[in-house]
Amino acid sequence: MAQQPDSTTIVVIRWLARIVGALMVVLVVVFFVGESLGGGGSLSPARLTPVEWFEVAALLVMSVGALLAWRWEALGGALSLGGGLAFNIVESLSKGWVEPVWFAVVFAVVGMMFLVCSYSSAASIRRQA
After folding, report:
1. CA dist., res. 106 & res. 119, Å (int)
2. What was the pLDDT predicted at 63?
3. What is the value of pTM for the model shown?
4. What is the distance between the alpha carbons of residues 15 and 9, in angstroms, rounded to a whole number?
């Protein structure tokens, strides 16, 4: 049976995931505000391709997941991880080669961190029962 990490490690992972996730959400908000207020209107629905629409949706899923994970770690972690993977898969397929996008990778790592915390918390509760 694998040894469970101690509670201090989980607390550090949890807070690191929360802080990095919150910073990433702030970055996404700044990006959307900047693109919306910019003169080019590059986020105009008429100007986005279907791939870009999917990527915007995946970005929103990643962001919502990072926020939800503050309360529901498993759900939020799964959304952040899934959104990050989906974004990178679609980006790679559209370009024809694998080129991970850094912010989607960060969201995916944050999602994995939340999932580790969720699993560890659930395992701790099962051990106490």
Report:
1. 20
2. 98
3. 0.86
4. 10
